[in-house]
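Example complex used in Figure S2.
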Amino acid sequence: MHFSEDDLREALKRKDPGEGFTQRLMARVNQSKAEVTTQLATKKVNGKFLAWWMQRPAWAMAVVAMLLLAFGIGGYQYSEYRHAEEMRIARAKQQKLQQEAERARDQAIMALEIARAKLNHVLQHAQLQAEPNDKIRRERL
Amino acid sequence: MNLATSKLTRILVAAVLCFSALRGYGQDAKLQLGNLDRLSEKAARVTDVTLDGSLLQFAVNLIEKVDAEDKDVEQLQSIIKNLKGIYIKSFEFDEASQYSKGDVDAIRSQLTSPRWSKIVQSVEKRRNEYDEIYILKNGDKVGGVVILVAEARELTVVNLVGDVPLDKVASLERHLAPGEKHSDKPKQKKESSHDQE
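Predicted assembly (338 residues):
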């Protein structure tokens, strides 16, 4: 590709940046500065927090131990609660079954008592009816 | 193809018929007592017991656990363990003639099969009392018992399904009634209950 002298002159000619160029430039410079400051501040805080714990390992261990203990106790209590609840439900079921069985037993005994009474009642009636006939038969003989 | 299909159909029909016949054979000791339910409104005292299947098994299991050395309990066990169902409907009325002859005939009509035998009948026409005992023969064993007590102010149907030892039922001790079993002096209670008779 060949550029003529005129082309180069045209390309490198001074151009007007327009009005408010200085303000725009300064505004962008200020914005970049602010972003950099915020990032630096955050890093500083995190670093400080970690550094505090790094400098006190006993405290860190104690906090971790306490957290583990709290979780352990909580888990144990929850499992105990679940176990007690399951036992309570099982006992209630057992009790209900026992009550049903007792009711059935009482009903069976009552039914057999009625059967006994009625059976003896009928047999007694039949016997009473048979007795006079026997007497008459014997008398005839 | 058609021949095979018709054969298969015949076999299936025969199987279904055999199955239903066997089912009926096992269940015919149980009477249909539903027609008596309407008497509940007129009766002064109603006793309705339906005990079969799992409920009866519950009762058997519980009776087996309780005081196995007690002779009365032993006797009760020996009766109940062979039973398949206990059905009782008993109505006591304040006034006479509260139930119809049709109500009793509906029960009797179910006992007309040759397998049912009337072993005891007591009729007192002057007092309008008709008491009957039927047993269902199941080979050499008893398949069921029906005690029908139709008196002026009472109608009771006791239907025991299964191998019922009638002699043992008749000689059951009275103090086996619920609530009396665990009393401290069962014999005294028994005597007093006899006295009340």
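Confidence is low (pLDDT under 50) at residues 178-197 of chain B. Chain B is about 35% helix and 30% strand.
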